[in-house]
Write a structure and sequence with these properties.
Blueprint: E1 10-12, H1 18-30, H2 43-47, E2 48-54, H3 63-70, H4 74-82, H5 96-104, H6 118-122, E3 135-139, H7 153-156, H8 185-193, E4 196-198, H9 202-209, H10 211-217, E5 255-262, E6 264-274, E7 285-287, E8 299-300, E9 303-308, H11 314-324, E10 337-344, H12 369-379, H13 384-387, H14 396-402
Parallel strand pairs: 1-2, 2-5, 3-6, 5-10
Antiparallel strand pairs: 3-4, 6-7, 6-9, 8-9
Length: 407
């Protein structure tokens, strides 16, 4: 594109998970071979004018956790609440969720969407009080509401400590095998006895219930925060898709935009329970669809909600542009300009409008007229300042300020 466009810099428009892989690309293209593409340290500043990230999942999405644990989301929890037993019916023998899990456990890229930054960033994903920060999975509604100090064991939990029971023999009934078939009921009980899993301890849980998937995926993805970005270990490609463990390129004239919708309840954490024992080849954990908050609360059907675009919470979409990369930071050493542009969701008035012209939903936003206008103006040469700078409707700035991350 650069060559065919008269050697003019290009505007890149990645979406959703794609923003992580373009972040990886910028490190790869400048890195020397054989690890990288050998483009040299000035490749990005020479070829890229702007990066307009749409619905960016920079810090991950909690709904990826529900997919890995039980192949569920808010929609499945809703179906369970409306028609109990339908998805788990032995008579129908569908094993729908088992089939979904068997397939999705081969999609290692899902692990790139697991929330990043540990409990430091988990504070920003909080539901209400800061004492409940970072809780992504809770077993039972009470565990999702008590003070975080009541779970001290979670901070010191060692990898694999849950996985010490003898697995059962493979059952002879059912046709769908999942990694849960290698876990004993004792191990499942230990998982639920821990009551709550924060962003830090979640990875230990995933290593227990999906060991093969995690072994493969953790060779390619990392989820922490770098202490020293000059440490040579961060030259490894596994860190390049995590904005908290990699540096942006030296490209002071480049601009980075975070463009995303707001105003839609978005999954943030889950209340789980053990499934009924005894069913052959069942998934032993499920969202507790009976867990509800008060009338004006954010807990509904076992799912806690926050502001977002229905898939990505505001914090994940906006934090890096609002704070992590704002100005010269250790993550943005050349001071690339960043802009937050939010689009308030407005549902279509009728079916004739289709997906709507002002939608802020994660996918439908790509038909949002205001977003399209912003992209076209930048592609035509406008700068972020000429667009009007930030356009914010959410509390992203307040949330970002609460997060104490060394910049």
């Amino acid at each position: 594109m650069y060559a065919t466009n008269g050697y003019k810099k290009v505007v890149v428009v990645p979406h959703s998970m794609g923003v992580l892989y373009f972040l990886h690309f910028m490190k790869w293209v400048e890195a020397p071979p054989p690890m990288g593409g050998g483009g040299g340290p000035d490749w990005c500043t020479k070829h890229i004018k702007s990066i307009m990230n749409i619905g960016p999942a920079f810090l991950g999405v909690p709904k990826a956790v529900g997919n890995i644990l039980s192949a569920e989301s808010k929609d499945v929890a809703f179906i369970r609440a409306m028609a109990p037993g339908l998805l788990d019916s032995e008579i129908l023998g569908l094993q729908t969720l088992e089939h979904v899990m068997r397939v999705s456990r081969t999609w290692d890229s899902i692990i790139s969407l697991v929330p990043k930054g540990g409990d430091d960033l988990g504070r920003g994903f909080q539901v209400q009080e800061s004492t409940k920060y970072g809780r992504i999975v809770s077993f039972g509604k009470p565990a999702s509401e008590v003070h975080s100090s009541e779970f001290p064991s979670l901070r010191s939990q060692k990898q694999g400590s849950l996985h010490n029971a003898t697995p059962p023999p493979v059952a002879s009934c059912g046709k769908v095998w999942t990694e849960y078939d290698d876990l004993s009921r004792e191990t499942i009980s230990k998982i639920s006895e821990n009551k709550a899993y924060t962003a830090n301890t979640l990875l230990d849980l995933l290593r227990t219930i999906a060991p093969k998937m995690m072994r493969r995926a953790e060779a390619h993805f990392s989820h922490g925060i770098a202490d020293d970005l000059d440490d040579l270990k961060y030259n490894d490609y596994k860190y390049w898709s995590n904005p908290l463990e990699t540096k942006l390129p030296e490209a002071p004239d480049m601009e980075i935009y975070c463009l995303y919708g707001v105003g839609i309840p978005t999954e943030r954490s889950y209340v789980y329970k053990e499934s009924q024992p005894g069913r052959c080849k069942s998934i032993p954990l499920q969202i507790d669809s009976s867990a509800d908050g008060n009338k004006n609360g954010c807990l509904k059907g076992g799912v806690y909600f926050v502001d977002g675009d229905e898939s990505v919470p505001v914090l994940s979409a906006g934090f890096m542009c609002a704070k992590g990369w704002r100005g010269k930071t250790r993550f943005n050493p050349s001071g690339i300009a960043t802009y937050v542009r939010e689009y308030k969701h407005k549902a279509p008035a009728n079916l004739l409008e289709g997906r709507g012209l002002e939608s802020g939903a994660h996918v439908d936003i790509m038909g949002n007229v205001a977003l399209i206008e912003d992209v076209l103006r930048v592609a035509a040469g406008a700068s972020g300042v000429e667009l009007g700078g930030d356009k914010i409707y959410s509390d992203i700035m307040k949330m970002s300020e609460k997060i104490k991350v060394r910049l």
